[in-house]
Amino acid sequence: MKLTILGSGTSNGVPQIGCMCSTCRSEDPRDKRLRCSALIEHEGTTILIDCGPDFRQQILSLPKFPKIDAIFLTHEHYDHVGGIDDIRPDILFGDVEIYAEDLVAEHLMARIPYCFTPPEKRYPGVPAITLEHMEPHRAIRVGSLDVMPFRVMHGRLPIVGFRIGSLAYITDMKTLPDSEWEFLNDVDTLIVNTLHYRSHPAHQSVPDSIAFAQRVGARQTFFIHMSHFVLPHAEAERMLPPAIHYAYDGLTLEIPY
Question: Is 218 strand, coil or helix?
Fold first, then answer.
C-alpha cells in the first residue's frame, strides 16, 4: 500500500500570508505545507482522505493524474473540504463517491448544493458526486481497500480517523475516547496531527502528539497538520524521539496492508 502526503499544513497553510518567521521564510521545500490531505493506493484502488482548498495544486504536482475511486472526509471544516468542486476533472474517468458522516454531509449540501443535485437538474460542468453515509465502527470496502472509521475528538467536535490495513490516519485530534484505542492495535504506520508547541483547545501540541505516538507504539509515526510555529523541518526533526518524524508535502511511504 502506498501513502502520499498531499498536504501537511494546518488551516492557514505554510508560509502564512504576511509572516516573516523562520519557517515561513525557509527555502526548504519541506517547509511549504499545503492544507492536509492524503492519497492511498493499493492494487488498483485509489482513495483520497480530505479534499481541501489546495487540492488542485496538490493533484497537479503528482507525476500521473490518478483515478480517484472514493473520497473520505474526516470533518466539515473548510481546510478539509474546500476543494471538492475541483474534483470535476476526475469525473471524466468515472464516478466519485464521497463518504461522510451525516453532519458533514449536511454542511456540504448547505455550502455547495449544486454539486449534489439530481442529474436531470444539474448545471452542465459541475461535478457529479454521490454522497454516501459513513459512521464510526462500520467498515467500508472500496475496491481492494477496507476503511474503518473511528471516533476522534477535535476539541468538542466529534470527527473521524481512519484505520486502513496497518495504517492509522488521524487529523485535527485533541483527544481519543477510551473506546477507540482498540482501533490502533498493531499499527505499523501512524499519521497524526500536531499543531505547534503550545497547548491548544482543539488540537494536539507537539508534546501531546509525542506522548500519543509513544502510547500507540507504531513502527513509524509522522506528524501532519502543522502550523508555521513548528520550527523549520531540518531543525524540528532533530528534536523528535526515534521513529517519530514530521511529514512533509510529497512524502511517499510504502506500508504493509
Answer: coil
For 256, counting Cβ atoms within 10 Å of its Cβ (0-12 exposed, 13-18 middle, 19+ buried), the class is exposed
**Predicted confidence (pLDDT) per residue in 135-144, tens digit:** 999 999 999 9
Q: Which residues of 91-120 are buried (b: 16+ CB within 10 A; e: fewer)?
A: eeeeebbbbbbeebbebbeeebeebbeeee
Chain centroid to CA 178: 22
Q: Model pTM?
A: 0.96
Residue type, 132: E
Q: Give the long-range contacts of residues 84-90, CB within 8 A, separation 24 or more.
A: 84/51, 84/55, 84/108, 84/112, 84/115, 84/127, 84/129, 85/112, 85/115, 85/126, 85/127, 86/51, 86/55, 86/56, 86/59, 87/51, 87/55, 87/127, 87/129, 88/125, 88/126, 88/127, 89/65
How many whole angstroms separate alpha carbon 86 and alpha carbon 84? 5
What is the CATH number assigned to the segment(s) 2-254? 3.60.15.10
| Host H or E run for residue 192 | strand 189-193
Instruction: Please tell me the distance from the alpha carbon of residue 165 to that of residue 162, in angstroms, as a whole number.
Output: 10
- pLDDT tens for 151-189 read 999 999 999 999 999 999 999 999 999 999 999 999 999
Alpha-carbon distance 5 to 36, whole Å? 8
